[in-house]
Design a protein that fits this description.
Blueprint: E1 2-4, E2 7-11, H1 12-19, H2 23-32, E3 37-40, E4 44-48, H3 49-65
Antiparallel strand pairs: 1-2, 2-4, 3-4
């Protein structure tokens, strides 16, 4: 986990491990705009930890409504 400008940035692999899902699922969420991420150079993608927390809260809220 990287800390830039007081934010937590996680690798796609770290996010997938936290959410118990495949890395391609995480890339899909990034591509669809569901998760905010930044590309660092040509190879590395990092997910904003705050955006991940917000997405988890939205998912939990939608499960509670249904």
């Amino acid at each position: 986990m990287m800390n830039l400008e007081g934010r937590r940035w996680l690798s796609v692999q770290e996010v997938a491990a936290l959410l118990n899902c495949h890395v391609m699922t995480v890339y899909g969420w990034i591509d669809s705009g569901r998760l905010k991420a930044a590309r660092i150079g040509r190879r590395f993608v990092r997910v904003d930890g705050r955006a991940l927390e917000g997405e988890l809260e939205r998912q939990a809220a939608s499960k509670n409504v249904n």
